[in-house]
Amino acid sequence: MRRSLSDTLAFCRILLIVNAMGCIQSIRCKPRSFRESIIVLEVNSSIDSNPTTIDESSNVVLRYRTPHFRASARVLVPPVAGKETWTVGWIQACNHMEFYNNYGNRGMSSWELPDLREHHIQAISDSDGVNYPWYGNTTETCTVVGPTKKDTKFTVSMNDNFYPSVTWGVPVSDSNLPHLTSIRRDQSFTTWLVALNQATNETMVLQTVRWRMQLHIDIDPERPLGQRARLAEPTAQEQPQILPRNEIIPANAMVKPNANDAQVLMWRPKVGEPVVVIPPKY
Ligand SMILES: *[C@@H]1O[C@H](CO)[C@@H](O)[C@H](O)[C@H]1NC(C)=O
Ligand SMILES: *[C@@H]1O[C@H](CO)[C@@H](O)[C@H](O)[C@H]1NC(C)=O
Ligand SMILES: *[C@@H]1O[C@H](CO)[C@@H](O)[C@H](O)[C@H]1NC(C)=O
Question: Quick check: is 208 in a domain?
Fold first, then answer.
């Protein structure tokens, strides 16, 4: 919603008394009026309605592809006085991850984020790993380099989905013999639309979106390749929520490592000690 000009003027009028130059040039007035007038004109967020697709074409791995989460926003940045540079874009963090691949009575493999799992942190960055803290640097961000004389309007958008491979065979064995019996996944994310001043790192949260992806695939490893897997639930994902009040960004959502580099593949046998199959990358 566009903040009324009179709000800004009411604040400036106080300064006018002490500043005959007028508040637009006033150093004290500028940061506050600018901050308050970056406007989100429109924001959309959804998860596509198509179900997860399953690909059994490989005799080594099962692949699946979940529907896309999407977020986009039209933003107005008012004239930027001086040489300030503002970047507006999407930042995402993972808050919760359960990602279990069951191999009958042998055990399960699980992708884990140890610091999140043990509640040492409440979120982990989901940046692309290059453009921290941003989720990406193509459609995901827009940078306004001051000074600008007019309003700058643009759209920033992002999308996310899962497209993993899961071995048919037990990951700690050399055999490709199919033992995979089910896949269960439940992940939650927070996605923020943020304006960041490049010089000062001043950060403004403009919008906060929460979303979740849940998945359950049942597998009969006895059946021939191509006929093993069945999408059990859910038939439709919960839709994302655009929160009525913004949430602050936890420190770990802004910095290295990201979820991709921090995740560990564990083998958790029914009997015996867990084994690290793939250690973290960082
Ligand atoms: C939001 O969705 C509406 C309806 O599909 C579309 O017309 C509009 O362009 C979208 N806005 C943004 C910022 O993506
Ligand atoms: C995105 O980041 C990469 C890697 O830092 C860089 O090479 C590229 O120029 C950037 N693209 C844009 C559009 O900023
Ligand atoms: C802004 O953040 C970057 C990255 O964390 C850091 O390198 C830089 O020193 C910070 N600048 C200021 C002015 O705090």
Answer: yes
**Ligand 3 atom nearest 201 alpha carbon:** 1
Domain count, the chain: 1
In a domain, 11, yes or no: no
Could you tell me the end-to-end alpha-carbon distance of the chain, in angstroms, rounded to an integer? Answer: 42
Instruction: Kindly report, residue by residue over 70-114, the tens digit of the pLDDT.
Output: 999 999 999 998 999 999 999 999 999 999 999 999 999 999 999
Q: Which of 131, 200, 201 to mutate to test the pocket of ligand 3 (most atoms within 8 A of CB)?
A: 201
**Is the Cβ atom of 73 under 6 angstroms away from ligand 1?**
yes
Q: Answer yes or no: is 159 within a domain.
A: yes
- Look up the pTM and report it: 0.87
Domain annotation covers residue 87? yes
Mutate to test the pocket of ligand 1, among 39, 41, 42, 156 (most ligand atoms within 8 A of CB): 42
